[in-house]
């Protein structure tokens, strides 16, 4: 039976970031993935890193810290990362959301976010395609777009041991602590396991003894073909003000709001939809039509662009709207990095860093207490600052290697 200090389950942008950060610290880490690197949700979204859709609080703090990690990735990977610092416009066709925006903007500024309020004429000067009714917008200049699939693959390349096509069937627990991972081909002993399997994380957590009320939240995108011999159809990420309420809503039913932006190849991406309906990945033509119709209220020209493709993905959703990041206090050696919903790209690299920091006994860049996986059980978590040491060190957070499954 082979073994390691830490096994990371899931090779999306979160799992690859965790594994790469651990490898950089000299940890003997193995990255396990049922398919190929970044073959799941990571490669299906728009690739956004946004402060504009956040509220002040722990997730915004994590996002701000993550912007610095994206600066590093941009410098290290160059064009491979396809980082476009286009900024985002949260536009308001609804007078009620526009009336509430100055207070939200003031709170975001106080939290350290760069943001500017724009009247309607200034918004149209930046984005002439926004010909529909609107009252104004908040502009977030640091928001960016990237290629998350390429970034995840680059991060995985920094990990000496990567096993693709290796499905984790269960987390092995012996004598009340993590002992490794049960896979279809052979068991893997490990001092600690980090579950970073996105929407597929819940069975692994619960099989190990950690209740985690995580559900897949389905979402669909439509790509419209735009002329390649003309200037970009849009230059910013455009987010309808009502999108923020959709993200925060606990409702299970279908919700459609508008996000718009261009791809690297200059096509136009149209979203957004949310629905909790299990693991169904089928794209729905009626939802595509509804998203295009709603987007046309802001940008009527989308109706003239032919549909090139549509597809769906699954966001890992938790009821309180925050990801689960850090160690379980109930099962020593079990770590979780999932539940980022639609912000997995934005929060993936910084999640990898804070998990590696905590595992190795460094003070994490942000306090992990609000993200503790055990918060859904009993009295909740008691995790903050350095939650554990590198596997093998004398601490209960990452125990010595067990006997293995």
Structural summary, described in words:
- With 405 residues, this protein is of the alpha/beta class.
- It has two domains: 1-84 and 144-214 and 319-405, FAD/NAD(P)-binding domain, CATH 3.50.50; 88-141 and 215-317, D-Amino Acid Oxidase, subunit A, domain 2 (D-Amino Acid Oxidase, Chain A, domain 2), CATH 3.30.9.10.
- It is 26% helix and 26% strand.
- The chain contains nine helices and 18 strands.
- The protein has helices at 13-24, 58-77, 95-110, 120-126, 148-156, 202-208, 243-248, 285-298, 344-359; strands at 2-9, 29-32, 48-49, 88-92, 116-119, 136-140, 144-145, 161-163, 168-174, 177-183, 188-195, 215-224, 237-240, 255-262, 268-274, 307-317, 324-327, 334-338.
- Strands 1, 2, 8, 9, 10, 11, 17 and 18 form an eight-stranded mixed β-sheet that branches. The chain has an eight-stranded mixed β-sheet with strand order 5-6-4-13-14-15-12-16.
- A hairpin with a 5-residue loop joins strand 14 and strand 15 (268-274).
What's the layout of helices and strands?
Blueprint lengths: L1 E8 L3 H12 L4 E4 L15 E2 L8 H20 L10 E5 L2 H16 L5 E4 H7 L9 E5 L3 E2 L2 H9 L4 E3 L4 E7 L2 E7 L4 E8 L6 H7 L6 E10 L12 E4 L2 H6 L6 E8 L5 E7 L10 H14 L8 E11 L6 E4 L6 E5 L5 H16 L46
Helix pairs in contact: 1-5, 1-9, 2-9
Shape: globular
Helix content estimate = 25-40%
Rounded Rg:
21 Å
Number of domains: 2
> What is the CATH topology classification name of the largest domain?
FAD/NAD(P)-binding domain
Helical segment count: 9
The secondary structure category is alpha/beta
- Taken in chain order, the helices and strands follow as EHEEHEHEHEEHEEEEHEEHEEHEEEH
CATH superfamily of the largest domain: FAD/NAD(P)-binding domain
Distance between the termini: 9 Å
């Amino acid at each position: 039976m082979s073994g390691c200090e830490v096994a990371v389950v899931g090779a999306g942008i979160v799992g690859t970031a965790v594994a790469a950060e651990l490898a950089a610290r000299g940890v003997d880490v193995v990255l396990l993935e049922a398919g190929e690197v970044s073959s799941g949700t990571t490669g299906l979204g728009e690739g956004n890193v946004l402060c504009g859709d956040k509220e002040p609080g722990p997730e915004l703090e994590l996002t701000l810290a993550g912007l610095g990690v994206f600066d590093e990735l941009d410098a290290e990977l160059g064009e491979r990362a396809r980082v476009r610092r286009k900024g985002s416009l949260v536009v308001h066709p609804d007078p009620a959301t526009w009336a509430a925006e100055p207070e939200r903007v003031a709170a975001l500024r106080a939290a350290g976010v760069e943001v500017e309020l724009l009247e309607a004429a200034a918004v149209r000067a930046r984005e002439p395609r926004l010909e529909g009714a609107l009252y104004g917008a908040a502009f977030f200049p640091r928001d960016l777009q990237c290629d998350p699939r390429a970034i995840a693959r680059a991060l995985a390349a920094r990990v000496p041991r990567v096993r693709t096509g290796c499905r984790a069937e269960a987390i092995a627990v012996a004598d009340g602590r993590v002992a490794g991972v049960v896979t279809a081909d052979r068991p893997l002993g490990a001092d600690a396991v980090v579950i970073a399997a996105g929407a597929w994380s819940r069975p692994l957590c619960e099989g190990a003894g950690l209740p985690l009320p995580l559900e897949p939240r389905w979402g669909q995108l439509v790509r419209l073909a735009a002329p390649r011999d003309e200037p970009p159809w849009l230059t910013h990420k455009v987010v309808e003000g009502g999108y923020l309420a959709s993200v925060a809503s606990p409702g299970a039913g279908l919700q459609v709001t508008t996000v718009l932006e261009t791809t690297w190849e200059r096509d136009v991406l149209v979203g957004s939809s949310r629905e909790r309906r299990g693991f169904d990945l089928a794209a729905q033509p009626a939802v595509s039509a509804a998203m295009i119709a709603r987007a046309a209220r802001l940008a009527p020209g989308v109706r003239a662009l032919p549909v090139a493709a549509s597809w769906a993905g699954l966001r890992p959703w938790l009821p309180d709207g925050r990801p689960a990041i850090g160690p379980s206090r109930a099962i020593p050696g079990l770590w979780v990095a999932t539940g980022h919903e639609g912000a997995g790209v934005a929060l993936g690299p910084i999640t990898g860093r804070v998990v590696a920091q905590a595992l190795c006994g460094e003070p994490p860049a942000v306090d992990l207490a609000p993200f503790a996986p055990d918060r859904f059980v009993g009295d909740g978590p008691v995790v903050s600052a350095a939650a554990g040491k590198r596997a093998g060190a004398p601490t209960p957070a990452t125990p010595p290697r067990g006997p293995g499954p």
